[in-house]
Amino acid sequence: MPTALWIANVHVTDEDAYKEYASRATGAIADHGGVFLARAGKHEQLEGRDRARNVVARFPSLQAAHDCYHSDAYQKALDFARGASERDLVIVEEAAP
Fold first, then answer.
1. Its pTM surpasses 0.85
2. CATH code of the domain in which 20 resides
3. What whole-number distance in Å separates Cα of residue 45 and Cα of residue 21?
4. Whole-angstrom Cα distance, residue 40 to residue 33?
5. pLDDT tens, 32-87?
6. What residue numbers bound the domain in which 11 lies?
7. Could you tell me the sign of the dihedral formed by the alpha carbons of 64, 66, 70, 75, in that order?
8. Distance (Å, rounded) from C-alpha 15 to C-alpha 17?
9. Which residues, 6 or more positions from 11, have their beta carbon under 8 angstroms from its beta carbon?
10. In 3-state terms, what secondary structure has residue 94?
């Protein structure tokens, strides 16, 4: 089964609330087998909208990433990000090697 990437591009507008989101979301992501590959490191914007925070997590499957997003724990964490950030989030199935 192919793994999947959760890719988020974020502009944070309320640092304190977003820190609470990140703290809570980390556990929910780990509970669904998610592992962070990139988390707000240096980046180079080549096209499109530049957002300072970019996050990539790998999940064991597209379904696991989907289930994480829709889980009660993640939705409770997401309450802290709403109004504290502008976000784009996509789940992408990885190609087989």
1. yes
2. 3.30.70.100
3. 25
4. 20
5. 999 999 998 899 999 999 999 999 999 999 999 999 999 999 999 999 999 999 99
6. 4-93
7. positive
8. 6
9. 51, 52, 53, 85, 86, 87
10. coil
